[in-house]
Please model this.
Amino acid sequence: MDELALDLWEHPELGLHEERSSGRLRETLAEAGFEIERGVGGMPTAFVARYGAGDGPTIGILGEFDALPGLSQAVSTEREPIEAGAPGHGCGHNLFGTAGVGAAIAVARALDRGDVDERRSSGSQTQSDEATGEVRFYGCPAEETLVGKTFMARDGVFDDLDAAVTWHPSDHTAPQRGSSLALDSLSLRFEGESAHAAASPESGRSALDAVQLLNTGVEYMREHVPEEVRVHYNVQEGGSAPNVVPAEASVWYFVRAPTREGVERVTAWLREIADGAATMTRTEVSERYYTGCHRLVSNGVICDTFRENMAELDEIEFDEEERELAAELQETLPEGAIAESRSEFEPPHDDAAADAALYGTPMDAFDEGESGGGSTDVGEVSQLTPTAQFRATTWALGTPAHSWQAVVANGDFGRTALPYVAKLLAGSVFDLLTDEERLAAAHEEFEREVEGYENPLPDGTEPPFELTQ
Model:
């Protein structure tokens, strides 16, 4: 796992183009005897790896492996790109996917040994002719653009799962009981008429004016949407030269809200503003819907399973050299970042972490009932089957995700957490495979919390490969 995670870190790839990273994970699983299905959801780097058979449950492990643009970084205590402008693993997906692969292989070995049958038969040494259960690893591309799992869900690859587990790198170790925001991602493109901006501006119709009017309208909309709603935009194309009226311009929007219905209401308003901007500028507007996702529904039964296994594993242990590097990285963090992170910890962990550069002691979840400001396409899986994730310490305390300091950790001491994470994932999958009452309780909770499912992708939507070219 250590070699695989480092290899992915040294060869970062953007979402939907992770050919090498996806290939390395597939090869590792194939060598362990997994059956591989490639290209699911219309994405060449997406795959499902299966192991097992029989009448038992099917438990999935979700894995990611995409990097972030512009975050190339050497293992250094200063901002030092390996290649200026190149991508880097600032969210730890080189660790994310690798630990999931290690866990899947461990469960496969337990199936082969008959451990699953033995546990399910309450200690009987009698083993069935075929393994009574299946473990799957889902190779999910493009999480950073919230694409992979939504398109995989549309393809039906999660439909027959009995439960799904996953994790995320972090600066602490705990189950995640909170939710996330649902999301729409779309681009609005305006087309006008080019003209000389000084000699004959009356002949032109500015697509950039339309983009600016749309963005201004959205700023006024903010006053009249719920406080939890988040709207962000980025101008993709705005013209070529000041003396040419821009005939084409586009803007990329994220719309987030606590519910899918809330997202759809705000997105509908956004579209009306875009139509108004087009009318005001006498341009034409078109839309490219990239992706969408539901909020995350964290399954409490699975979270409890994580916490039980964390207690058995105890803490993630780092050596003195790793702690020293982490402490040096902490000195480069924004003022107040460490204190802000510690402020979320409950006693006794808030005090115990006071002087820690790396705090690997597991703790109870502290986010139950809360909804974070971000989004994850894990939410899509959680609408289809009982799903939960946990955080594990891979970063210096206070480190923000998507930072160069996180890239350093993901390429260095973060890899020390891989055996712990793989054991925690594997042990939790084993519990779900073998404890019928536990799995039934997870399903009872799921039925209470989730009402129906409709994939957010409009008919005919294709994966947005162009976003990360």
